[in-house]
Amino acid sequence: MQYAKNAAGDFAGTLEDWLRHLDEKFSLTPAAHEVVQAVINDPRHASFASAAELAQKADVNVATITRTAQSLGFSGWPELRQEIRTRFMSKLSAPEVSVVHQQETGNERPFDAAMNRQMEQLTALRRRTDRNSVKEIAKLIAGAKRRIVLGSGSFASIANILAHHATLCGYRMELATDGVMIANALGDVKENDVVIIFTFWRLYNSAIRAAAQAKAKGATTCVITDAAVDALAKNADYLLLAPAESTSFYATVVPGIGLAEAISAELGALNPEMSARSIADFEEQWQHQDLLFTKTAPMAGKPFDQL
Q: Where are the domains of the chain?
């Protein structure tokens, strides 16, 4: 409890700066200003409160909560709350995050809590993601002279999946997952190159620097994250948001992987014949290297629920 309480206090100043900037930028009404002030006063409550709960806190009606969120550039309160939640959680250490999650999940079994969170996040991701942006990123990857994808820590797994799938489709992609690899990859990046960056939760400085460097060198930058913070957004030609909060001490990679696979699927659909030939060539190489244990499908043709 003490962990979360202290962290919430430390975070309030940062949240206040961000919200007051939006307040000034969009010239909010007095009622909307009260909503912003209610969030500033208790950011932890706002990070999970319903519109009705926040309305009671701000002494306004529920419609004002929705209008305030829309005035700030969000589709509604759920989207604004997610941004507040992400910024709140990003300032917590792993032990602090664990305490917050334990308080929220209560007696729910860890397995059920984890599965329920993943399903909720994927449903939200499917509903909120702009299909045209995903397709445009796929087109950029296909047309780029050079393709680089960056991801560190557990997020390297997401970058690895995109690099693997894109390469199989016929669009060879470089993978950089640590400081030296990232520095080397960006050393000679140029115009007509595309740099894709995965970073979530407590954002890596290496990712923020990479976005700035790639942008400065003329490359097209695509950032996939859970928080549209200025340090990333100002250097992103394309920015996709995916939730990354789990029910434990770590950030989840499932929604990020979902976006990586969606981009890969769009890539494969751009030139199906070329991608089919590329995949067939790789398949031949796998067989030549005797990489696969058997040609039988992993589940021997049985549906998952019959195993």
A: 2-101, 128-288
C-beta of residue 41 within 8 angstroms of C-beta of residue 9: no
pLDDT at residue 70 in the model:
92
pLDDT of residue 206: 92
Look up residue 143 and give its two tokens.
């047309």
Domain 128-288: top CATH class: alpha beta
Q: Which residues make Cβ contacts (< 8 Å) with residue 262, sequence separation at least 6?
A: 129, 134
Q: What does the pLDDT read at residue 298? A: 60
What does the pLDDT read at residue 296?
60
Q: Please, what CATH class does the domain formed by 2-101 belong to?
A: mainly alpha
Tell me the C-alpha distance between 73 and 90, whole Å: 21
